[in-house]
Amino acid sequence: MAVAGGGGETGRQSVIGRGFLERHHLCAWSSSTSTWIVVRRVFKATHGTSIPAGHFVARRLVDRLLGVPFIRQYEPRDREALYEVCLRTGNDGGDATGLYQVPTILGEVYIGPYLRLHPELAWVIDDNGSASGYVLCAPDTTAFESRCEAQWWPALRERYPLGSFPRDSLDEEVVGIIHDPERAATEFLGQFPAHLHIDITPEVQGQSWGTALISTLLDELMVRGVPGVHLSVSTANARAIGFYEHLGFTVLSHDAANTMMGKHIAID
Ligand SMILES: CC(C)(COP(=O)(O)OP(=O)(O)OC[C@H]1O[C@@H](n2cnc3c(N)ncnc32)[C@H](O)[C@@H]1OP(=O)(O)O)[C@@H](O)C(=O)NCCC(=O)NCCS
Question: Which of 39, 49, 177, 236 ranks highest by number of CB atoms within 10 Å?
């Protein structure tokens, strides 16, 4: 496992290149303006020519007609599906369906606040009209935590008072988080102020969509001038840790329960 520091590669260099563009249907990705600017710039740098007129639009139309999944910005209609994806991947990366008395309670902590406060930094994998994966992000973790304190947690605390569920139940564990939310370690926040969450349903895992979602997010954070992003992953989730390391994230700290990882983002 890699250790903190270094982080020489930029998000752009490590995940986007000529072969990557071709292999992973970048044309079908997010239509956010900034992403397209980066795509055009990288294409020109790697191919020595501009993207042929209409190429991406045509590919996108064909992919949609064929039902090929594609990445797009979050829309309010995706909300329920994202809560479902969160549950289906909420057991250290495995399925948590049936483990919670309230199936939406995990999503109330790990999805809801991001959709409310930063819908512009949420992308989904659209698989025949239904969202089967997502990446969510708060660009400034300190500001996000304050805004959650004011705008998100109070209503949930009223809905789920401490002791709502049996003491040793998983639901009650989440209620504990709602009443005493996890706070990011301040020593990382100067270098890695943003944080992200990513989850993909088993049907579309291992097909590079995770890489594509992270790349889409890193491009947007780069355009916004955010210098770095961190995340917390269950230490038991070896697959996800391997995935993040593959993308150039390094371990910032870890204990038996959680591993913190971070990645610098080069500012153009
Ligand atoms: C973790 C997750 C987001 C990864 O997304 P994905 O689409 O399955 O991963 P990708 O197909 O993009 O894999 C990207 C690269 O990581 C590599 N990778 C995957 N698992 C790896 C591992 N255990 N060790 C090393 N590399 C690994 C892949 O080989 C791939 O490299 P390649 O493109 O050169 O072949 C996704 O599997 C997932 O949502 N899992 C369940 C929920 C979860 O664990 N979420 C993270 C919680 S913090």
Answer: 39
